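Changelog entry: the (thale cress) hypothetical protein record was regenerated in this release. Current contents:
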Amino acid sequence: MFTSLTSAKEMHEQICWFALSQGSNLILLSFHRTWEPNGNVIISDDQTLRSLNLNVLKRAPCSVGIFVYRKPIWQTKALESPCRVCLIYVGGNDDKEALALADHMRGNQQVILTVLRLIPTSHADESSLRIHSQMVDMNRHEDQRPGDKSTIIDWTVGDGTETSKILHSVSYDYDLFIVGRRSGVGTTVTRGLGDWMEFEELGVIGDLLASEYFPSRASVLVVQQQE
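Regenerated structure tokens:
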């Protein structure tokens, strides 16, 4: 346990210094906005916390995760029920880090992991993604575990509108979405979605998943690999 008293303006420096001194692999932050469970009513909107998150993302010595809490991932009355986790994978360093975190979750037999690969239709994008797609397959097949319930689903995507439709179609299927912060940036997967992004710290796809207009109340974990 570590406790430090500091001003809000300097808090990100304390967090980054402590992560560096301890050799941390991940800094996990709370999203600045919270809602009523299973609803769209905003309970808090802490702009000081948002500023902290943005500063940590810029200066962190390790990977950073921003957790958007929408509802309990495990319901108290249903602790024996599995937790349904969906990793959204397009390719890139942030998605690799998100994949690594999701891979750790497979060690819990109550976790059902789905890797949802969004593959751009353009040949140029597909060629750049082929290596990443093979990596996902290798992670899955080279590390088979007893009771492993992970699956991979591929969707070919032409633009951001199709991406939005796909995510809306599976919105109620999962309790937690995991995505890289810069997932899909520069590909047809997010084309047109960036114009509607409200919170840059969540990235294009993460912002869509956390939007009040997204039908699901699933929580979201957005991951940024160390730069």
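The CA atoms of residues 36 and 43 lie 6 Å apart.
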